[in-house]
Amino acid sequence: MFSYRRIYLVSCVSRKTPYPAPAQDLYTSTWFQKARAYVLRSDSPWFILSAEHGLVHPDDVLIPYEMTLNNMSAAERRAWVEMVQNQMGESLPDADQVVILAGTRYREHLEPWLRRRYATVSVPMRGLQIGKQLQWLSENEPS
C-alpha cells in the first residue's frame, strides 16, 4: 500500500466567497491563502478542517456557510471531532507525518487521535499569534 511522506490539515476561516466554490478557493482570508500556498509548495496531499463539513478535500465544492468551532460548546466540538475522525478513517491516506495548520479549537481533541494513528504529528505554528503565523507561512518552506 502506498504511503505519503506527509499530509497537511488546514483549518477553515470565516472569510468566504459569497458563492459556491471548491473548498481551496472558498476561504478568502490572507491567512488561508498563505496556508494554501505553503501546502501547495509541499506537493503533498492536504485537507481542510471545516467547522460545517468536517474533513474536506480541497476540490470539494462547498456552499458558503457561517459556522465556527469557536462558538460551539465543548460537547458540540467533541461531536465534530468524532465526525472528523470517522471521515479521516475513510479518507486520509497513510503517511509518515501529519502537519496541522490549525488553531487550538480545531486540534484540541483531534491531535491525540492523530498521534495514535501517525508516527509524527506536528503543529509548526503552535502558540504563535496571527501576525507571527502569517510571517511564518511567508518565510518558511515545507521540508
How does this structure look, described?
With 143 residues, the protein is of the alpha/beta class. The protein has a single domain (4-135), classed as Rossmann fold, CATH 3.40.50. It is built from six helices and seven strands; from the N terminus they run ββααβββαβααβα. It has helices spanning 23-26, 30-42, 74-91, 104-107, 110-117, 130-139, and strands at 4-11, 21-22, 46-50, 54-56, 61-62, 95-101, 120-122. The strands form two sheets. Strands 4-3-1-6-7 form a five-stranded mixed sheet, sandwiched between helices. A two-stranded antiparallel sheet has the order 2-5. Strand 3 (46-50) and strand 4 form a beta hairpin. It is globular, with a radius of gyration of 14 Å. The two termini are 23 Å apart.
Topology readout:
Layout: E1 4-11, E2 21-22, H1 23-26, H2 30-42, E3 46-50, E4 54-56, E5 61-62, H3 74-91, E6 95-101, H4 104-107, H5 110-117, E7 120-122, H6 130-139
Parallel strand pairs: 1-3, 1-6, 6-7
Antiparallel strand pairs: 2-5, 3-4
Order of SSEs: EEHHEEEHEHHEH
Structural class: alpha/beta
- Helical segment tally? 6
Radius of gyration: 14 Å
Determine the fraction of residues in helical runs and give it as a percent range.
25-40%
Using the coordinates above, name the CATH class: Alpha Beta
User: What spatial order of strands do you see in the largest sheet?
Assistant: 4-3-1-6-7
Shape label: globular
| Chain-averaged pLDDT | 95
- Summed up, the domain count is 1
The major pleated sheet works out as:
5 strands, mixed
**The CATH topology is what?**
Rossmann fold
Number of distinct beta strands: 7
Distance between the termini: 23 Å
Strand content: 15-25%
* CATH-scheme architecture: 3-Layer(aba) Sandwich
- Provide the low-confidence segments as ranges: none
